[in-house]
């Protein structure tokens, strides 16, 4: 980027230096001819050379206006050669007079292609071709047959003592030039008027924003064409009139005028595009719906027919912002342009717009980027809403599971430990009575209560173990799992990698998911020969439970798998079930860790 920028700067400086040198040379040559108003002519020469080249240098900075820049620079360089028309040298004078007409194709090109940067098919291309043909054949080509060039021109000061034409190929001027000369002037005038009509129609047919951009160059272009037509007509009708020289000088001043208008148009365009993008950015930041988006785009871009088509779910079918179903090809049947908005290779929307927007690549790309951002933002909102719904559903299931677990504990306490304690209370009362009446039998009854108390304690321990295993709290995840899987029917290979203590809610979630996955293997993994459990810790705590059983086709998660997923999602993780018939099942749970994992060493053993 820096190298390209430096190279561009060097090129611009070189062009500027060349323009200054050419302007200085042209001024020196002009002043040596002792013109009647030397200061005015010198300033005019400098302006006609330097202003187009300066505008061209500015145009080269933008790829979209590069052609304009080249044409302006060419016009400035060519005009510098017209200073040769002020010399007494026969060949130099002839070159200066002929080269002057080469400027016109470049000026006409600038006028006709602005601001799109290309000639439109039809009238514009035909008029430009006819004008270039007329200049090359009837004006420049006539230099081969005329003895002297017409007087009353802005690029010569001689009157009766002008040097003869150095390009004359005959001994004398043929008579048919008396016929060719008025015909070419007439054709040139007709072409100028036709070009003016085309420019006016283009300006009237443009929308408001486009008209602001086109106006400077179009107005100066109209003035240039009308002045040239008047100059040719007056020169043919009254060649000795002072108006001829006045109109010629006025026409030459349109050259820097067009260059200045081009610069003004570019600046106005940049300001206009900036204002439009600022308005659109404000619109998009408000998260508009599709209908509001269409209305705002139509207002900002001054294109009432603009629309954003979104996929309807069927290939090739799209839905307009008003809800109408259309096919992609139908959207452009009414003469509208169609631009596909993609995210990589996937088409996300179709932008139906005026063809004028397609001619402005910079604005079109900016609008595409804004719409793409709007689409992505809408997708993110939908995904976020879906995630929130899933989170709410998960929380609801956890609440239901917690209520169910509480009910189970209450039932177990009521039906087990509570009943046994009530029975102990009754038997204790009986033992108390026996001690009063039969001490020996009473002491035996009290001794028998010890077994009942041990059974009650065991039931309480069993219930507590179902709530939070003591070994998990005391010794951590690895020892808790090793103790739980030791009684498995299938061989269990438990491998851990750098596992350290984590928050209780994370350890409990991983523990229960592992136990439930192991129980599922023992219940459903027909043909399994072993189970492999791997726990890894880095920036995530990862659990993998894998078997070599029959496998299954994963579908909507049943209750057990749903509970496992809820447990992991409750601590910010995710659960993946990977299975296929004949290839076993793999349960993968990942939980992100909020702090750096401890380096407890790597341990791999067979449980």
UniProtKB/TrEMBL annotation:
Enzyme Commission code: 2.7.13.3
Top EC class, one word: transferase
TM region(s), chain numbering: 12-33, 39-60, 67-86, 98-115, 127-146, 186-203, 215-234, 246-268
GO molecular function, one term: protein dimerization activity
Domain of life: Bacteria
Pfam assignment, any one: HisKA_3
Keyword field contains Membrane: yes
InterPro entries: HATPase_C_sf, HATPase_dom, Sensor_HK_TwoCompSys, Sig_transdc_His_kin_sub3_dim/P
Catalysed reactions listed for this entry: ATP + protein L-histidine = ADP + protein N-phospho-L-histidine
SUPFAM superfamilies associated with the record: ATPase domain of HSP90 chaperone/DNA topoisomerase II/histidine kinase (SSF55874)
Annotated ranges, domain Histidine kinase/HSP90-like ATPase: 505-595
PANTHER family to which the protein is assigned, alphabetical: NITRATE/NITRITE SENSOR PROTEIN NARX-RELATED, NITRATE_NITRITE SENSOR PROTEIN NARQ
Protein name: histidine kinase
Species in which this protein is naturally found: Solirubrobacter ginsenosidimutans
Lineage, top ranks: Bacteria, Bacillati, Actinomycetota, Thermoleophilia, Solirubrobacterales
